[in-house]
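I am still getting used to backbone structure tokens and would like to learn alongside you. Please make up or recall a protein chain and show it to me in full. Would you write everything just below, so we can both look at the same thing?
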Amino acid sequence: MSDDEPLRIALVAEGPTDRIVLDAALSSILGDRRYILRLLQPEDSLAFAPPSASSGRGKGWGGVCLWCRNTHQRGGGTLRQDLVFETYDLLIVHLDADVAGCRYSDCGLPDDVGDLPCDEPCPPPSTTVDRLRCVILRWVGETELPPHTVLCIPSKSTETWVVAALFPDDKEMQRKGWECHPNPATRLAAQPKSDRLKKTEMNYRGIQDRLAAEWPRVCSLLGEAERFSEAVRNSVR
């Protein structure tokens, strides 16, 4: 593929607001490079559907898990053999790091593997993230990440990145550690009334340009944001 052609990026994510945040990040990371971002999971028409073990679709981390399992089975046991790489130049799999504290039964999946929960004390956030990366690799039938694949695991969630971009002076996040606050989404509603942000697709679209503009600062504050940026840059070189 030449640099004149748009980069074709497939995204597997927990939900549509995560897509907006990652789209903002990608626009900053890739700069002038044109790209097309397609949300494979959840599909646009299913973005607000509950996870379903029978269909392998739905939002939330259970939907991501089912997509990974179904895709690697379709690819003959490994993700790298799947047809997704014939259509797309890059695959991004997103999962919030707070999933490390969950059980499969939390989203109606059989709890027969024993690799969740896998959370570790934070700081450092990287210890839990690294363990969760191994869980995702098992979901896709791999022992190492296939080429043209990037894992995106914000600690504890993508809202950590949103708060860092929009509210860098938030004292609660600073006190507990930007990447170790157990529920960063609560800080969006805790801001002064004029700045409060509800986690809706419409509201997130309204801040997408600000997220893109502040992405370099987010990376300077958060190690997992910088790890994601570097992984994307390395994959598209």
In short: Residues 16-30 form the longest helix (15 residues). Confidence is low (pLDDT under 50) at residues 45-56.
